[in-house]
Structures are given as structure tokens and as C-alpha cells.
């Protein structure tokens, strides 16, 4: 299997290159960044330029499997083609400005983008798998009350190149022989509000000429944008994770204002209808917050709410941050909540977030400076 090209470096603590960021060579802003294009886009691009369609596959492999930064190195392309590409196209490259290693083995990658904004990814190396958690937006417009990213407001969508570039940048820093095996779109932002760039990025992750990841190893997490969930379900057999976080309409509206537009019942209904290939389960993220949603009554309601949906529930004890007043649940409350579900045959796991000490855990990514107050 040919996943993301991974060379050299060390997992985690590799020093970032000083001044690293989103490198736009030359006058790239006026040219076509080839990393913004999936196979179909590359196909359209090469044909528009008067070249043969098969060139798209060649380019895709150089860009995403070999991770090349310049046309000179694309040795199977004729010199004339390479020179022509140089005139109209460019290859962007994301480099971390900081890599912060956590005690638990995960690392946070911080990227300075070309417009001065910031994106963050988290590398989670485990036995037998290497997961990269990528961001889809700078900030998030949904403003969930408990989430640092949401508190900082929305700045902009990330481009296709910035989404796939995060995985490539992390891959370059892995130990020799390790490769990225899983991608979760669960970092900053609401991916389903950036479908325009999420969809080509997913195609690049899944393409045999791109990262060649199995759809079982790609997960998209949403706060419940119902129409986009329906569209995603029709187009991509990737894993769906839904951040539920509450069991009554009222509590959910309080914690997640997006619920006013897409109520809990509509989200659960969309999950019930969600097309599931290969007998896949839908993952429900449930952040347990002391006194808000961690009672046994909530566990009872959650069980009833999801009845009949093949579900896997991730119970995530709240990561406290100085930017919200919410508190982590008591350990006994977490255990009682999980026990109730497990005893009824529900697949419910407690996920102690990784990277808590470095602000890389769920909901800790973002622009804390913007979140203060
Ligand atoms: N916008 C998408 C994906 C990014 S948020 C979504 O909401 O699903 C990723 C996850 O982090 C969500 O499940 C969210 O509920 C969780 N989260 C946010 N803040 C958190 C915190 N402080 N502690 C634990 N989990 C948190
Ligand atoms: Fe946005 Fe997800 Fe945070 Fe809600 S939890 S504000 S949807 S990033």
C-alpha cells in the first residue's frame, strides 16, 4: 500500500524550520496551485493547457505520493512540459512553524499561513497506526460554548492545498519507515461548512494516485450540518463522526447554537438515514461536561436517542481551558455514564484526549488569544 510519502525526520520532537509556513514560490498567488486540484481538476487543467489528459495522473503522483516541491524533479515529464508548467502553475508547501511534543507521544503542528493566519494539526502515533488530525477552517463560525476554536470566531476556510498540505507536512516529520495511515478531519473548524475544499481534499486522500488511504481510515467530524451530511453520505464512503454532546433539544441549543438551525432530532434522523457502506458504524462524540450533560438521565436519554443506529460512542471528558467556565466531569460520573451504555450493549469508549498538556487536545486548538474574554 502506498500511503503518504514519508521520509526522514523524527516523530514528534523534530525542530520546525525557522520561518516555516505556507510557502508560495515566486508569484504563486497568480498561478494555479496544483495542490488545490484533485485528479479531475488536474485533468481539466492539463487539457485546458492543451496537454494530454494522462498527464494529470503523472502530476498527481509527483505532488502527493512523492511530495515534490519543484517541477525540475518530475523526471518523467518532458522538459517542454515542465517549462510550460513553471509558467502557469506552482506547488505550495506547508511547513510547520512550531512542533510541540506532548508527554503522551502526540504532537501539535502549528502552521503560519501565507496571509498570517494560523492552522494547527495533531499527530497521534500509535502502535500500528499514525493518525493526523487536520483543521478545515481558521476558527469556526459555529461558536459552541465549550470550544476554544468556536470562541475565537471564524476567519476563513482552508484551501484544498492547506488541508492536504497539513498531512504532507506532518508526514515529512515522521520517523523513517512510518507513514500516515489515518486522517481525521477533527481539528479547528467545521469541515461540512467547507465542502467546496473538503471534497477535493478527501478525493486526494482516497485516490490511488494520491495518498491512497482506505475510506475506512478517513473520518470527518461534524457538529451536524444536516444537508452537508446528506451530501457527504451520497459522495464519500468515509467514516462519519457526529458531535452530539447533549441529549435534549434545550441542552444542545445551549451548548451548540448550531442546534437552532439543525435540531438534535434532525441530526439524529440524518444519522439514521446515513448510507453505510461495509457495515460501518457512525461515531458519536459526546463531550462530558460536569453538571451540563454528564448525569445518568443523560445516559438514559442518549441510549434511547440512538436506538437502532449502528453507533460507536466516544465519551470525551471535557478538557478544561481558561477560556470557558465549563468543568471536567468527575471520574465516577464518567464511569457511571459509560457503564449504563455498555451494560445495554452499546459500544461506548472513554477517550481521554491526547495532547492535553500542549493544548492539542479536542477543543483546545485555536486562537486562544482571540478567545480571551
Ligand atoms: N467542528 C467539528 C470538528 C472539530 S471539533 C465538530 O464539532 O465535530 C472536534 C471535537 O472536539 C468535537 O467533537 C467537539 O465536541 C470536541 N471538543 C471541543 N472542545 C472540547 C473540549 N474542551 N474538551 C473536549 N472535547 C472538546
Ligand atoms: Fe466549531 Fe466543532 Fe468547536 Fe463547535 S466543537 S465550535 S463546530 S470546531
Hetero groups: S-adenosyl-L-homocysteine, iron/sulfur cluster
Tertiary shape: elongated
Uncertain segments: 1-19, 367-373
Q: How large is the count of helical segments?
A: 12
Between the first and last Cα atoms, what is the distance in angstroms? 48 Å
Radius of gyration, in Å, reads 21 Å
Domains, number:
2
The H-level CATH homologous superfamily of the largest domain, spelled out, is: Aldolase class I
Proportion in β-strands: 15-25%
Describe the model:
This protein has 373 residues and is of the alpha/beta class. The chain has 2 domains: 67 residues, DNA polymerase, domain 1; 227 residues, Aldolase class I (TIM Barrel), CATH 3.20.20. The chain has 12 helices and 16 strands. The strands form 4 sheets. A 10-stranded mixed β-sheet has the order 5-6-7-8-11-12-13-14-15-16, covered by helices on one side. Helix 6 links the parallel strand 11 and strand 12. Helix 5 packs across helix 6 and helix 10 runs parallel beside helix 11. The radius of gyration is 21 Å and the shape is elongated. The N and C termini lie far apart (48 Å). The site of iron/sulfur cluster has 11 residues, from helix 4.
Q: Care to give the gist of this entry?
A:
By secondary structure, the chain is of the alpha/beta class.
Features of this protein?
single chain; 373 residues; alpha/beta; DNA polymerase, domain 1; TIM Barrel; 2 domains; 10-stranded mixed sheet; two-stranded antiparallel sheet; 16 strands; 31% helix; elongated; disordered C terminus; binds S-adenosyl-L-homocysteine; binds iron/sulfur cluster
Amino acid at each position: 500500500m502506498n500511503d503518504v510519502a514519508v521520509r526522514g525526520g523524527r516523530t514528534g520532537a523534530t525542530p520546525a524550520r525557522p520561518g516555516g509556513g505556507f510557502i508560495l514560490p515566486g508569484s504563486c498567488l497568480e498561478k494555479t496551485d496544483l495542490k488545490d486540484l484533485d485528479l479531475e481538476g488536474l485533468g481539466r487543467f492539463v487539457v485546458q493547457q492543451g496537454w494530454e489528459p494522462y498527464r494529470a495522473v503523472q502530476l498527481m503522483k509527483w505532488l502527493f505520493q512523492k511530495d515534490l516541491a519543484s517541477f525540475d524533479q518530475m523526471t518523467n515529464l518532458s522538459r517542454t512540459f515542465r517549462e510550460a508548467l513553471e509558467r502557469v502553475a506552482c506547488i505550495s508547501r506547508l511547513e510547520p512553524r512550531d512542533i510541540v511534543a506532548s508527554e503522551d507521544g502526540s504532537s501539535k503542528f502549528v502552521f503560519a499561513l501565507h496571509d498570517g493566519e494560523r492552522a494547527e494539526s495533531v499527530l497521534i502515533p500509535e502502535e500500528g497506526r499514525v493518525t493526523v488530525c487536520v483543521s478545515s477552517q481558521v476558527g469556526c463560525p459555529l461558536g459552541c460554548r465549550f470550544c476554544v476554536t468556536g470562541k475565537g470566531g471564524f476567519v476563513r476556510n482552508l484551501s484544498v492545498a492547506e488541508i492536504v498540505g497539513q498531512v504532507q507536512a506532518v508526514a515529512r516529520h515522521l520517523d523513517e519507515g512510518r507513514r500516515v495511515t489515518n486522517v481525521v478531519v477533527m481539528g479547528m473548524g467545521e469541515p461540512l461548512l467547507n465542502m467546496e475544499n473538503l471534497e477535493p481534499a478527501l478525493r486526494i486522500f482516497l485516490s490511488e494516485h494520491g495518498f491512497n488511504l482506505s475510506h475506512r481510515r478517513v473520518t470527518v467530524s461534524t457538529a451536524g450540518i444536516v444537508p452537508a451530511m446528506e451530501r457527504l453520505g451520497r459522495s464519500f464512503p468515509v467514516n462519519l463522526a457526529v458531535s452530539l454532546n447533549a441529549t435534549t433539544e434545550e441542552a444542545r441549543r445551549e451548548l451548540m447554537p448550531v442546534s437552532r438551525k439543525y435540531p438534535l432530532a434532525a441530526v439524529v434522523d440524518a444519522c439514521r438515514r446515513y448510507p453505510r457502506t461495509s457495515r460501518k458504524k457512525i461515531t458519536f462524540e459526546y463531550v462530558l461536561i460536569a453538571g451540563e450533560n454528564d448525569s445518568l438521565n443523560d445516559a438514559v436519554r442518549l441510549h434511547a436517542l440512538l436506538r437502532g443506529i449502528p453507533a460507536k460512542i466516544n465519551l470525551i471528558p471535557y478538557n478544561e481551558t481558561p477560556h470557558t467556565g465549563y468543568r471536567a466531569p468527575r471520574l465516577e460520573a464518567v464511569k457511571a455514564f459509560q457503564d449504563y451504555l455498555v451494560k445495554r450493549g452499546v459500544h461506548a469508549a472513554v477517550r481521554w484526549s491526547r495532547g492535553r498538556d500542549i493544548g492539542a487536545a479536542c477543543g483546545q486548538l485555536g486562537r486562544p488569544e482571540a478567545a480571551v474574554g
